[in-house]
Structures are given as structure tokens and as C-alpha cells.
Amino acid sequence: MITVSDLRKVYRQGNNEVVALAGVSLEVPTGKIHGIVGHSGAGKSTLVRCLTLLDQPTSGTVAVNGKELTNVSASELRDARRRIGMVFQHANLFDSRTTEENVGYPLELTGTPKNEIKTKVAQLLELVGLDKFAKAYPSQLSGGQRQRVGIARALATDPDVLLCDEPTSALDPKTTDEILELVKELRGRLNITVLIITHEMHVVKQACDSVSLLEGGKIVEHGDIASVISNAKGRLAQTLMPLPGDAPRSAGSGTILDLLYTGDQATEPVISSLSRQFNIDVNVLAGSVEQLSDQQYAHLRIQLPAGINEQEIINHLQSNGIAVTVKGTK
């Protein structure tokens, strides 16, 4: 489990103070994948450095599996860092080392015997699907393969946490999906906690169980995917479940509603059921369906006919677990 409490980081620039993190708090349960999203300058890079204590926070605490990292000795911090595997944007491999030598490097640093390193590396390369590339150098590998080497290296010390800093931003869409599938598979097999720092909402859609929106050094939205989606007015919901860009805002007269279906509701014939129950014609103006965290979600814009009791219909929809936003009346 990762627990961050009221984390602040303030940099001094001459007589000025720059607040990079302004009281960040979050908790990621064991075995979950959590995404931290935000634009450039939101504080994501600072958060990564503070989570690994490469940057000492100005205040607040960071704990992994109950072990607080912000108030330990240098030797204890070195041991704690071994429990956090780091995956970088560009893999950061040693060009002069082969695949197996890159993966084994963290074990060399800890003084692990050579025969144990050989066995462990072989297991890790098989785990990430690179057992046939043990003798290859980084220049001989594709971008996705280099990232797999980086993931295997991050797992060499059997970490509790995998911290991924923009792990797919340098990859093409197909390779991105392959890497995200690998991360999900490893999470399931190793019961490892994963934190992904990204600016790509596609990463959240494909891999994350929960997400936080970081802005100006603060978390402004946070939650598991289902609860985030159910907040129809939230920016994360609108970004994760957008309507087509040219979605019409009205067709004729009547109240316009945006509906967000969560979980199993996305597969239910809600509109046809609504039409039958209230004996009305419902106009579907636009819609989108997304697969998020292995569940299906839907976002619809509908228009009710004029002259009916809209509130009764809204209450009915909400009682069935559908998030409703009134967009206006024409």
C-alpha cells in the first residue's frame, strides 16, 4: 500500500518561493493500479521525486506498506527504495550492457551472488516475454522491448511498488497497449501496487483502477474509476467519457440530459425501458461507449419531449444508478 499524507514541496528561487506540491494526500491499496494525471507543470515530476525521497518533501509523509520513508536513517532509506521499482519514460538502459546485464544490474549493486543473479534474470526475462533477447543490446531492441527490459529491471529486487513515470509516452499506440497489458498481468501475478504518472488519459482508460487529477500541486479530483465516472460534472468524467466533438445540443424542443452509465448499467436497454415506462419518445442526440478498467461505461445525450414531468424521469434514472446532468431546455 502507498500512503501519502499532506505532502508539500516548496522550492526557493532567490527571494521567491515556488510551491510545487501543495498538500497532496492519497492512498493506493495493495494490488491496485492508480493513475496520476495532469498537464505539464502540475507537479507530477516533483511528486515522483518525493515519493522516492530523491527530493526531500518540505512537509508531509510518504509510507509504503506502513513504513514511513520521510523520517528514517540513510541505510533504512536505501533498503526502502529497493522496495520501489522505477520504470522511466525512455527505459534508461545502459547501451554497453546486454538485456540480461541491464536487468541484473540492481542485483549487482546489492551484492547478490552471480549464480542467483543469473537465475533471477532468466525468470524475469521470461516473465516479460524477452527470454530470447537475453544477449541483445538496447540498440538491437524496439522501443517496446526496451521498455520491457526496464520493467524487468525494476522488478529485480522484488519491490512492493512499481512506480511508472510516463512509461508509454514515447511508444506508438499498439506498443502502448502491449506494455499496459503487461503491467496489468504483472500486477495480477505478483500482487504488486502500481502508480502510473501520465498525461495520457488512454493509459487511465486501459490500465487504472483509480485515478487522481493533479493541478497546481494539488489533487483536485480523485477516486476509483466507477465513482469518478459517476460524477457527471467532473472533469475526469468528461475527459474519460467524452461525447463526439460535433454532438448536437438539441433537436426540436424539450429538456436535454447527459447520462453516464456506470458498470453493468452500460449494457442495459435503459432508453427503451424509459420510453415504455413513461410512454414517451426519447431522442438520442449522441453517445459514446468506453471500456475502462475492464468494465464498460456509456455516455449518452438525450432529449425528452416537451410538456412532461422531467423531474420524475430524472428521479427514475438516478434511482437506477445513472448519473444525470441537465444540459438545458429548448
From TrEMBL:
Family from the record: Belongs to the ABC transporter superfamily.
CDD domains linked to this entry: ABC_MetN_methionine_transporter (cd03258)
Name this polypeptide is given: Methionine import ATP-binding protein MetN
GO biological process: one example: amino acid transport
Keywords for the protein's UniProt record, in alphabetical order: Amino-acid transport, ATP-binding, Cell membrane, Membrane, Nucleotide-binding, Translocase, Transport
One GO cellular component term noted in the UniProt record for this chain: plasma membrane
Domain of life: Bacteria
Quaternary structure (record): Homodimer. Forms a membrane-associated complex with FtsX.
Pfam families the UniProt entry points to: ABC_tran, NIL
